[in-house]
Amino acid sequence: MAVRVASVPAGHPYPQAIVARPGETSADQELEILADPIVDPDEPARWWPHRALEPAFWTDRPADVLHIHFGFEHLSLEQTHELAATLQRLSVPLVLTVHDLDNPHVESQTTYHQQLGILIAQADHLITLTPASAALIDDRYGRKAHVLPHPPIVGRREVLPSYPLTDVGVFLKSGRANVVKDPEFYRELGADRVFAHADSAQMAALATDVHEPMDDEQLFSAIASHRVVVLPYVRGTHSGWLQMCRELGVSVAAPDCGCYWDQADVPEAVEIYRAGDGQDAARACARLLERGQFAYHSPRISHRDVVDFHRNLYVQLGSKGKSAR
């Protein structure tokens, strides 16, 4: 019988990228990745708040392994303790990938750090994306984390720029909570293009290019038309945007918070600036433009190795969990 994995969330691009597509290999038939429970029938794609984080979800033992990536910050400390106690009582193995040592969606990190400590203590296996993050986990929580690089986002697709190459761009979308909102930052930065979604008046006011959400191909071609992209963040730890930019051969100016710098495939292609400082971000962009562009260098571990690692881990933990029941 296949090992059933509840991935929180299953529908996010990252968790989807670390498991094989259905039927890709016979070995991957050992796994069943459960779909995210429908939270709202009127919005079926919304997975949050995820039901697998509720102790009641586990009453009938619908999965053999729980793998948490994101989306637990809505829990109280009491609820986080209750989840950990439920998993321990039912012998449900927990895999935790620490994407965010600092949560980009919340301003005060105190409760989030405590939640992370509870889950890290309960986890049967810890994963993170960079050596810098692993060192911080060891220092703060006394646990060793297995380092696996960010999986490919663009992959082997051929991407053509949508218009002639531009020096510096910023993509605000609808404005996550960790994005700089101060107009002075963008005036000091002086980017050639600032993109924002039309559904956010606050972000649109900062933008030179207001648009509807792009599909993947539109987004990739828009990013590929820049020499440098700025990540305008004030907190966070890792970035799928940085990964995406580097796969497209675009250099990145990233803030000095988190572990963004340690995601660099080529150190010269990522320049750090003081978070929230537009003048320093402009200087970082100037340094990157002076160096020229660098082709993306794939990590030494292949994407297939990452997929195999997760499959073997799920099967091992799931089989151990079944025997403990």
TrEMBL record:
> Does the record's keyword annotation contain Transmembrane?
no
Top-level taxonomic group: Bacteria
Q: Which UniProt keywords apply?
A: Glycosyltransferase, Transferase
* Record InterPro entries: Glyco_trans_4-like_N
- Which residue range or ranges hold the Glycosyltransferase subfamily 4-like N-terminal domain? 31-150
Sample GO molecular function, one term: glycosyltransferase activity
Give the matching Pfam families.
Glyco_trans_4_4 (PF13579)
What's the protein name?
A: Glycosyltransferase family 4 protein
What organism does the record attribute this protein to?
Corynebacterium tapiri
